[in-house]
Amino acid sequence: MRRYLIAGNWKMNKTARETKSFFEELSSHLTFPTQSEILICPPFTSIPEAHRHLQGSIVLGAQNVHAKASGAFTGEISLSMLTEWNVAYVIVGHSERRTLFGETDACIHEKIKTVLQGRLKPILCVGETLEERQSKQGAFAVIERELANGLKDISAEDMRAVTIAYEPIWAIGTGETATPEIAQEMHHFIRQWLNAHCNTAVAEQVRLLYGGSLKPSNAKELLSKQDIDGGLIGGAALEAKSFAELIRIAEELSH
Question: Which of 14, 22, 197, 209 could bridge across to 165 with cysteines, CB 3.0–4.6 Å?
C-alpha cells in the first residue's frame, strides 16, 4: 500500500515569521508521528525557518530549482542551495511555471534529471487547460505528452523517486468541477502509462497526487480513490487548521 503524501505548496506566501507561526499552530492540531508523509514547500526565503520546525513525518520541499549547478543566472536557485537545508522534494513543471514563466517540457525534463542526480525527489506536475480538454486532441493526449517529454530517458530505478501531481488546470478558479470520478480516471490513465513505459512494480510504487483544489470538504472522497495517493495543495495548505484536517482525513483512510 502506498503511503499518503499530503503536500502543501505555499507559492508566494508566508514570510519567515509567518512560517514560524504556522508550524507552531500545526503542532497544536496534530499528534506525531503520522502514518502519512507531510510535505511543506515554502518560498525560498522561508526554507531555513521551516527547517527549524521539522518533526515527525514532516519533510521539506522546494517550489523550483535551476537545472545548472551554478552560474550567472540572476534570481535562480541551485540544488546545492536546497540540499544544505535538507530539502527532500522539488516541485517541477507546476502549471504556473509553465504558463506564467514559459517553462517548456524540455526545460522541465532537464530539471527532473538535475533533481534525480542530486538524489532528491521530483514532483512532476502535469495537467490540461479547459481549451485543451475541449479540443480535438483531448486531455489524455496532453497528459501523455507531458509525461513522455518530462520523463524521457528516466530509468525505472530513478522513477521510484518520482511523484506525479495531476493538476486539472481547467477546474481551478474557473467554476468548472473535476469530480472524484474524473480525477480517478486521469490518475488511472497515468498509472497505466507508467505500467506501459516502466514496469508494473514501478507503476504501483509511484505516488500520484491530486492538485485540483483539494480541501477538507472534498478530501475524503478524492483520497478514497484507488489511484489517488495524496494531494498537492495550495490554498488549504496556507491555514494550519485546514491543512491539519487534510492530514487527519488521510490518517483515517490509512487505517
Answer: 209
Give Cα 37 distance to the centre of its chain: 12
Examine the pLDDT at 101 and tell me if it is beyond 80.
Answer: yes
Q: Is the pLDDT score of 176 beyond 80?
A: no
All domains in the chain, ordered by first residue:
5-254 (3.20.20.70)
Give the separation between CA 111 and CA 152, rounded to whole angstroms: 12
Classify residue 38 by burial, with Cβ atoms within 10 Å: 0-12, 13-18, 19+. Answer: buried
> pTM of the prediction?
0.96
* pLDDT higher than threshold 90 for residue 137: no
Amino acid sitting at position 145: R
Residue of 94, 103, 109, 128 marked catalytic: 94
- Rounded CA-CA distance 216/36 in Å is 16
Hey, CA dihedral for 89, 94, 97, 100, is it positive or negative?
Answer: negative
Active site residue 167: yes
Q: Assign 32 a pLDDT band (cuts: 50, 70, 90).
A: confident
Element housing 60 (H / E): strand 58-62
